[in-house]
Write a structure and sequence with these properties.
Oligomer: single chain
Structural class: alpha/beta
Bound molecules: pyroglutamic acid
Strand order of the largest sheet: 2-3-1-4-8-5
Length: 201
């Protein structure tokens, strides 16, 4: 059986929970399709998130890495197409605010996801779970983690597939802020499982 490293993030920017943490914790240790899931929860900190992800990667030596992030305000599951060499945006959980910074000085401008993102979207849509490819992972921690993982894999000349999927808020968040589009935890878990099931299809 192959190994899949599934990551979520801790809560950030005033969100009381992060649905990605709940989903990753629920799937930890499960066997889905051909994959044994090993989950890890990442901090929302520019100085630590990528480093922590790479540490988990080196310990687990997965065949595939799927990182999840909350995109509060999006109403679809959105596999990300590309990560860019830029850090910017809101302050992180340590209050660090970066502007227009590179992730890696002189690193490539961007990396494409090596996950089958079109297959993910087609599969979810067929299951009645709304999804679309996103062409921007933003410039905050999610983009930072996606870029850093793909950069590490490229630099080490590994053939591990990796990428990032943004998910909408869960009902736990939408009951607090009724302006946020939300999904049930059950459907978020179902969507992530479906994508893992079709990784090699
Ligand atoms: N979403 C943020 C960071 C942590 C998370 O779950 C993002 O989209 O960058």
């Amino acid at each position: 059986m192959k190994t899949l490293l599934l990551t979520g993030f801790v809560p950030f920017l005033g969100h009381s929970v992060n649905p990605t943490q709940r989903v990753a914790e629920e799937l930890d240790g499960k066997a889905i399709g051909d994959y044994q899931i090993k989950s890890a929860i990442l901090p929302v900190e520019f100085s630590k998130s990528a480093e922590r992800l790479i540490k988990h990667f080196e310990e687990i030596k997965p065949d595939v890495v799927i990182s999840l992030g909350l995109a509060a305000g999006r109403h679809l599951i959105t596999p990300e197409r590309i990560a860019i060499n830029c850090r910017d945006g809101e302050p992180d959980n340590q209050g660090v605010k970066l502007q227009d910074q590179s992730i890696r000085l002189d690193g490539p401008d961007g990396y494409f996801s090596t996950l089958p993102i079109r297959r993910f979207v087609d599969t979810l849509q067929k299951e009645g779970l709304p999804a679309d490819i996103s062409n921007t992972a933003g410039t905050y921690l999610c983009n930072n983690v996606m870029y850093s993982m793909l950069d590490y894999i490229k630099e080490k000349e590994l053939n591990t597939r990796a990428g990032f999927i943004h998910i909408p808020a869960s009902f736990e968040l939408t009951v607090i802020n009724n302006k946020l589009p939300g999904w049930s935890h059950h459907d978020l878990v179902k969507a992530v499982k479906k994508m893992i099931e079709v990784l090699d299809k």
